[in-house]
Amino acid sequence: MSDIANRIVERIEAARRDGEPLSIVAGASKRFVGRASRGNPLDVAAHQGIVSYEPGELVLTVRAGTRLAEIEAALAEHGQALQFEPPQFDGAATIGGTLACNASGPARPWSGSVRDAVLGVELVTGRAQRLRFGGQVMKNVAGFDVSRLQAGALGAFGVITEISLKVLPRPRHTVTLVRRLDAADAIVHMNGLAGTAKPLSGACWHDGQLYVRFSGAESAVDAAANQWGGERLDAAESFWQDLAEQRLPYFRAGVPLWRFSVRSSSPLPEIDGDWLIDWGGAQRWLHGDLDKGELERAAESAGGHVSLYRGGDREGEVHHALPEALKSLHLRLKDAFDPDRILNPGRLYGWM
Description:
The chain is α+β, with helices and mostly antiparallel strands. The chain has helices at 3-18, 68-76, 95-101, 108-111, 114-117, 146-149, 183-194, 218-228, 236-244, 292-301, 324-337, and strands at residues 22-25, 40-43, 50-54, 59-63, 80-81, 118-124, 130-134, 159-166, 168-169, 173-180, 200-206, 209-216, 231-232, 257-261, 275-278, 283-287, 305-310. A hairpin with a 4-residue loop joins strand 15 and strand 16.
C-alpha cells in the first residue's frame, strides 16, 4: 500500500476515534452533486497514477485520484478509451469521483456505464479497514458485488483508493445526423433505432432537433446513416463533447436542474418546461423551481426516478425518496461499512 493510502487509513482511524465527520474530496469537479457536504476535508487528490495497464487485455488499474484527462491520454496512445464517455469538467474530474457520482456520457445505453466498466476496487471503509473487492479480469465476481455498489454512493460506504476497469477500442468511424422532430416523435424514433442492429452510439433531442450518432466500422456506419437519413453534422465531435461535459447553453441556465432516469419509451410528462432528452430517451433534463413530489410522481409513472441534480436547496433531500425496504438496505450497508457515520455524512441522503 502506498504512503498516501496509509495516511488515508490513519486519517480515518483518527476521525473515528475523535468522532470527526470527513468530507471526501479530490478534483472537486462534482461538489454540486448530492446534498451539501459536511465535515472536514479528506483530500485524496494526491493518491494518483496508473498502477497497471494491459492494452492487449483491455484492462486498466488506476489510483482513484487520477484525473480522467491523464487516463484518456494514456488510452489514446493505444487507440482505446473509456467507453462510458465520462465528463472531465475542465480537466478536474478524477476516476474516483466519476465512479462515486456514477457519471457517464452520451454512449452510456450502448457502451455501458462507469458501473459496467468496473472490475474491482480497493476501498478504505469508515472502520479504517482496507478492503479489495472484485479483481482485474472480466469475470471475477462472486456473491455481493461491492465494487459496483460504489457507483453513485457518493462515498457513503468508503473512500475509493484504487479501481480496475475494462476499456474498449475507439470507434474507427463516426457520423452524426440531425433531423427536425418534436419530442414525442423523437422518442419514438430513438427507440425504434435502438431496437435495430444499427451501430447506434448516441441519441439526443433538444429544441426540436434530434441528434443521432453512429459509430463503428466505416461501411456499417455509412450504411446506417444513408438508410436513416437526415443532415450530417459537421462539428459533431464538439457537440457530443459539449453534451457530455455539460457545456451546452442549456446547462448554464442558472435555475435548478432536475435529472430524470426513466424508461426510454415513456412519453414526456405533462410538465411545462425546457426539456433535453439524452440516452435514447432514458435520461431527461428539466429546468425550474418545481415541486419535488410532483416530479417524483411523474418519474415513477414513467418507470424511473428523479433527482435535483444542480442548484436549488442542497440542504434538503435531492434524490428520489426510497421505499422503506431500500432505505433499510442502505442503512444496513452504512452500518456495515461506516457505523460511526464519519464518511460524507448526509451527502447521499440526510438520514445517512
